[in-house]
Prior knowledge:
The structure is a homodimer of 174-residue chains. In chain A, strands 1-2-3-4-5-7-6 form a seven-stranded mixed sheet, sandwiched between helices. Chain A is an alpha+beta fold. In chain A, strand 6 (150-160) and strand 7 (163-171) form a beta hairpin. Chain A is built from five helices and seven strands; from the N terminus they run αβααβββαβαββ. The first copy, chain A, has one domain (2-171): Aminopeptidase (3-Layer(aba) Sandwich). At the A-B interface, helix 3 and strand 6 of A face helix 3 and strand 6 of B.
Amino acid sequence: MAKTEDDLAATAVSLGFRHQPLPSDVGDVRRLVTQTGFFSRAEIEIAEELVGERLAKGAAESGYEFVFATIGEAVVGYACYGPIACTVGSFDLYWLAVDQGRQRQGLGRQIVAEAERQILAAHGRHIYVETSGRDQYEPTRRFYSQVGYEQVAVFTDFYAPGDDKVVYRKVLRP
Amino acid sequence: MAKTEDDLAATAVSLGFRHQPLPSDVGDVRRLVTQTGFFSRAEIEIAEELVGERLAKGAAESGYEFVFATIGEAVVGYACYGPIACTVGSFDLYWLAVDQGRQRQGLGRQIVAEAERQILAAHGRHIYVETSGRDQYEPTRRFYSQVGYEQVAVFTDFYAPGDDKVVYRKVLRP
């Protein structure tokens, strides 16, 4: 499994990264998040709103930072993260999505690595990710384990009866 | 210990409860939260802002609900809670504070019970509370245990090195 992932990563095209959102990213984020088929309408609206809030208010006031992965002009994936209020160095990774046509090429791994570099540069110590315990999210949970995130909590029936919240954390080493 | 608490609760004056914030509550919340001596300047600002957001946007858009405990005209304690986005029936209890001159009279317990009644009426299933693992917060953690909240997670060094986040939950029974 790990070998296959590495092989695929080795064949991945070279990505560009951009950290400043553009107005066109609102639509790109909607497309990326909708395509996955994983998220509810309410969740998709939130993903889109976070880009809008960042564009309207800037990084400091909105609290939302982005990594947009690009190939040429196309946005092929993105991450949204931000510092957790009233903490020293704890960050949430709110969103991560990769273009459906470019899955299994190591893009998610590269986008997370870029977000981690940015968070470390901002004196981050911890990154938290929340996901669902439902079967559908097993690939998501496996992905975070593979890139060094450790499961630190499970809240049973959090999202709904039968739908747990699972929290992962990576401790960054400067 | 429990006996003493019950005795004190039995002597407690009868509280009124109000759920609609008034502009004057912004200052009352600042006073209540500041008095405790537990919260940082940033945290106090957030407590105050939540009242302002609720006044400006209403309950649905702000996501913030309140219980103000009153004796006559005076606000002697409050709770702020709200539904957690993208969940079915999970609520966060964001803030709870009791007038410093009226500690240890069972007011906190009564305010939490009123918030729980409101949350149950809104089809809430779970209430989550986050607090610090620092020694200073031992009375806070003991309070939540005493009123039926169970510790469900500890995030080590979450707030800062040496300052854990402890998460409590109460499962409501209709």
